[in-house]
Every structure is written in structure tokens, then in C-alpha cells.
Specification:
Number of helices: 5
Order of helices and strands: HHHHH
Largest sheet: none
Radius of gyration: 21 Å
Structural class: mainly alpha
Number of domains: 1
Number of strands: 0
Length: 147
């Protein structure tokens, strides 16, 4: 599972990087993107930054790292730096421009991905604890394990 998630995250990150660093901000100019999707992505402008980095955050934050307790803050910092760098670098790419709104959407997308993963993780832990408590209560009520 970890390998699949890592592959998805790296592939998605490569796509986001390609779209951010190419000479044109218009997705409709890419022949391999379906016309309807390309038109929709071109019309939602700043929202596509939020969507792109939100999905990136989700994928990067859910990859398990065995034996590490503080991996999420490091990944959060790395993705925030990447979100800023990908926008600032556009100052030097012909046909592209730096926009504060895009930068804010990039950072908000990373934050959104992080919040979703943290909230989902907390909820999953609550469900797991509740199920464990109910199972333990059921075992105790039936007297299983008594001699």
C-alpha cells in the first residue's frame, strides 16, 4: 500500500509541477487533456491551485512512515515551501505571471490536505477505540476468558 501511495503522490506532484512550470497557464492547450475537463480547469483558475495542492497534500500526508512520530510537520513544511517556490519561479517563465491569489490558493490547498488527513486520522482513532471498547465490553459481559 505504501508503494502505491508513494507512486500516486510522486506522479501527482510531477503533474502539478509540470502544469505550474509550463509556458502557458491554460490547460485547454494540452492536447491530451479532455476538452470538457480542460475548459472546466481553465474557468476555475485559482480553485485549481487549491484542488491541485489539496490532492497533493492528501496523498503526501497519508503515506505511512514506519518508526517516525513527527513526519507530518516536516512534510507540511516541505509542501508549503514547494507551493511558494512553484508560484515564485513563474516570475522567470515567459508567458507566466506571479499572482498573490495563486500563492494563497497553493498554500491553502496544502493546509486543506493536511487538515483533512489529521481530522480523518483522529476520527479513525475514535472509531477504533470505540470498537475496541465495545469488543472488550462484549467479551467481559459474556465472561469469555474466565475459568
Amino acid at each position: 500500500m505504501r508503494v502505491v501511495l508513494t507512486f500516486l503522490a510522486v506522479s501527482w506532484l510531477a503533474l502539478v509541477g509540470f502544469l505550474a512550470l509550463r509556458g502557458s497557464p491554460f490547460v485547454s492547450e494540452l492536447p491530451w487533456v479532455p476538452a470538457g475537463l480542460a475548459e472546466w480547469l481553465d474557468t476555475i483558475r485559482h480553485w485549481r491551485h487549491l484542488l491541485g495542492f489539496g490532492v497533493t497534500g492528501l496523498l503526501v500526508f497519508v503515506i505511512p512512515v514506519p518508526g517516525q512520530r513527527s513526519w507530518r510537520p516536516r512534510r507540511l513544511g516541505a509542501l508549503l515551501v514547494l507551493a511558494v517556490v512553484l508560484e515564485v519561479v513563474q516570475l522567470w517563465i515567459p508567458g507566466r505571471t506571479y499572482a498573490h491569489a495563486d500563492l494563497i490558493a497553493n498554500v491553502a490547498g496544502v493546509g486543506l490536505g493536511w487538515v483533512v488527513v489529521v481530522v480523518a486520522g483522529l476520527q479513525a482513532r475514535r472509531w477504533w477505540r470505540r470498537d475496541a471498547v465495545e469488543a472488550a465490553a462484549g467479551i467481559a459481559a459474556r465472561g469469555v476468558g474466565r475459568r
